[in-house]
Amino acid sequence: METMLKDDDVKVRIAAADATARTLGTFWNVVNTKNIRTLINILLVKHISDSSSALVRVSAINAITMILENPDSHGLLRSVMPFMKNMIHDNTERVRLAMVKLLLKVKTIRGLKFYEIVSQEYLHAR
After folding, report:
1. Is the separation of the CB atoms in 25 and 13 below 8 Å?
2. Within the chain, which residues score under 50 in pLDDT?
């Protein structure tokens, strides 16, 4: 999965993000913690800031949203999701929409606060 997430082809990276999300969402407790951190790091550092493709950025946000379906992921994701805060101001509407959907998902999860990911000032500005 790590190799596919770093592939040069945009379509491969998008498919890899989806596959990673489905795998971690289902098998969070089976995958080694180091591998989980590596995969999440790729999604949140490389894919979120991918200036070559808005679809890669959208797929990264959607992947995190899917992973949130597994309650075991909340501890780790709580600490890393604030790195996504600037995505609410992305130039591409699809990216902003994916970010709003992520925040709506977070709002339904007990123990996670959407305003800890994106500040209220950012939301008011948007």
Report:
1. no
2. none
Place of tokens 């989980």: 36
8 A C-beta contact, residue 86 and residue 42:
no
- Residue 121 host element (H or E): helix 120-125
pTM of the model as a whole: 0.93
| Gap between the Cα atoms of 22 and 47, Å rounded | 17
Number of domains into which the chain is organized: 1
Cα–Cα distance between 38 and 61 in angstroms, integer?
16
Are 74 and 109 spatial neighbours (Cβ–Cβ below 8 Å)?
yes
> Quick one: DSSP state of residue 31?
S
pLDDT in tens, 52-78: 999 999 999 999 999 999 999 999 999
